[in-house]
Amino acid sequence: SGRLRVETRTMDSVTLSWSSARHRARVWRFPLRVELLCEEEVMATFNSKGKLWFETLQDGPRREMFVLCKCTCRAAPGPSSIGADVCLHGFSHVYGLPEHADSLQLRDTRDGEPYRLYNLDVFAYDLYSRRGLYGSVPLLVAHKPDRTLGVFWLNASETFVNIRYSPTDHQVFPLLLRMQPETDVHWLSESGVMDCVVLLGPGPRQLFSQYAQLTGYQALPPLFALGYHQCRWNYRDEADVKAVDAGFDRHNIPYDVIWLDIEHTDGKRYFTWDPALFPDPVGLQRHLETKNRKLVVISDPHIKADPDWSLFCEARDGGHFVKDREGRLYRGSCWPGECCYVDFSSPDTRAWYSSCFGLDRYKGSTPSLHVWNDMNEPSVFDGPEQTMPKDAVHYGGWEHRELHNLYGFYQHMATLEGLITRSGGSERPFILSRSFFAGSQRLGAVWTGDNVASWEYLKISIPMLLSLSVAGVAFCGADVGGFIQDPDPELLVRWYQAAALQPFFRGHSANVTKRREPWLFGVTVTAAIRTAIQQRYCLLPYWYTLFHQAHTAGLPPLRPLWVEFSRDPSTFAVDHQYMIGGALLACPVTEAALREAQVYLPGCGELWYDVHSAKAYEGGATLSLPLTLDTVPVFQRGGSVVCRSTGSGSCTAELRLLLLSLQGAADGELYLDDGHSFSYRDRKAFCLRSFSLMSGRLPAGEDGAFDCDTVVHSVTVVGLKNKPSTVTVHVSGEDLWCYMTVYHRHKRGLNLRVATDWDIQID
């Protein structure tokens, strides 16, 4: 049972237990202190430093001045800031708290600013900074060899987090040996209620599951969304879009989605099309759909304040805009000029906004159109810190300061509901949002915003995406090549190689940059980019399976090394390489003219195989690997089964199972469904195949009821100590039959249907 039980009670404290009584909470009366214990070991202490804080303002409204934009915000009297501290005993590594352009391991803040959680539109953001960026997830994850712990501070107002490690490297060495490490975390929020959840783990997988149960599981994206996306601010017109689309075909480069930025609209009025540049948007979408490709268009939260525009009048008359402190429409400046901002905190407003995506209302849209929510921190060009004033008023009379970090989340939610309703609830939509909060993972994808075309931004993208993944936002990526400025050819290639090994894969660039389609940089660069994108498509079955794991178990596809090698302290601070699922290790190249990469292969007793050469290496050591422009270090873990596509397109119907054997054993799984609908959820129309090689036998176990034509075309086995003489394949159907063949490491031409039970015996 999960019910709390009182174990002991004294004048000063009470001890509570639950579940199997392994965990206890000891609550001290005065001063208030809460200790969380596991088998008598204190894991965390709430209010250990006495920083529990509730501030109440009794005077009149105070004023906050913002000099740069000459704005004044007023705060009403009443409850204001809240804060608390949590001591994490035995921990010296903490992670999470996205979004910051900083290292994966959070730094000690006593020498500078705290980590700030406040969603802002920051152009060309500073690197290795604790300042807030586009999204906020107030989840901190602590890890040590025998335990993983999480602290979730559920507050959507401006929040600061101070971190203090003890002992520190600056203390005397003998003292380091005597002191148990601990980390003090101090949370301070401008407003709201105190809602703090401690996730007890004990391991990374259990913690991810607990957090997903609390805030929601990652949405299962449609299969096309895991392919390559081509975007630019802006493709000029329909002819330009078709020319780019044809360019991918002409250069044999696969892609699934092309995007349109703000210039596709009629005067920056969202839900419209420029009649001169895009006179036939339906025809354009149908042209792309014949090739199984999609179109994504932008939809920002600001609405042009145009009394001659029916959508603006409808929103104004329906009370769907944010108000100022005096009860008037709040007006701010953004791309269209003077705008009003949709109040997504209102359920009625979200329903209205969702209805705008209906095919009958959004003229020129088709079911193959998907959406990009940008500028939704929200961005206000003439506002304080380029966002909405804190004294703006939302639904129910709530000030903006109370829910600022939720604004983009609510737009993302309304857009999702609109696209689901558009299909009658049958189709999985794709929505990208720049702003996010805890729980955004169940809505779609996010990206790291307006980065710069430099090696430093390529390098920082890895810890940024790992931090998002640890905090549950698994479908994440960075603009390939950098949004701002022009990358040199080597940087562009290395960015494509890195992004092809990350969840969300989109090339994007600003309107002032040079055109950047993959074939514009010469034959050598085009070939390297083509190879990177094709390798992404070869791994699509594996990526899709990983997103099924995220959707059902909360496991992020992109994982810091310590998630898989939780007892190896050498992995705890690594943020330049990472795991893709449990089987692949990637170390993208993030330095110019690098001729040799240093790759740490974790796990003593593990075997790792170079995916290009199949050469084996022992774990627990650092490897020096020679590099060329065409190579990026990727290794497959011994004992794993990775399913790959033999084709470069996302609709290929053939797979190659790559088995790497450690001590004669390997396992893995493959998830399949129709790739686009909710039938996997509503009618169990999916196929989950488990593969396990043991004692020379490879059976395929099945879960689900999805009948597909996908076949296993070939099986590659690496690492067998002795060369077998024969391979016997048993296939079940109406009749049980088998055939024998001479063993070869690369067994091709099998054509085993994934939906059919079969096994392979290697003798």
Descriptive account of the structure:
With 763 residues, the chain is of the alpha+beta class. Helices cover 19% and strands 30% of the residues. It has 14 helices and 46 strands. The strands form nine sheets. Strands 1, 2, 3, 4, 5, 6, 9, 11, 14 and 15 form a ten-stranded antiparallel sheet that branches. Helix 3 (238-250) packs parallel to helix 4 (281-289). The longest helix has 16 residues, at 407-422. The protein is globular. 48% of the residues are buried.
Give the SSE map.
Elements: E1 5-9, E2 13-18, E3 23-28, E4 33-38, E5 41-46, E6 53-57, E7 62-66, E8 71-75, E9 78-89, E10 94-96, E11 115-117, E12 139-144, E13 147-153, E14 159-166, H1 173-178, E15 182-189, E16 196-199, H2 204-215, E17 228-230, H3 238-250, E18 257-260, H4 281-289, E19 294-298, E20 302-304, H5 310-317, E21 331-334, E22 337-341, H6 347-355, E23 369-373, H7 400-403, H8 407-422, E24 431-433, E25 445-447, H9 455-470, E26 476-477, H10 489-499, E27 505-507, H11 523-538, H12 540-553, E28 558-559, H13 561-564, E29 578-580, E30 584-586, E31 596-601, E32 607-610, E33 616-618, E34 621-626, E35 634-637, E36 641-645, E37 654-660, E38 665-672, H14 679-682, E39 687-694, E40 697-703, E41 711-718, E42 726-731, E43 737-742, E44 746-747, E45 752-753, E46 758-762
Parallel strand pairs: 17-18, 17-27, 18-19, 19-23, 23-24, 24-25, 25-26, 37-41
Antiparallel strand pairs: 1-2, 2-3, 3-4, 4-5, 5-9, 6-9, 7-8, 9-15, 10-12, 11-14, 12-13, 13-16, 14-15, 20-22, 21-22, 28-29, 29-30, 30-35, 31-34, 32-33, 32-35, 36-37, 38-39, 39-40, 40-46, 41-44, 41-45, 42-43, 42-46
Helix pairs in contact: 3-4, 6-8, 10-11
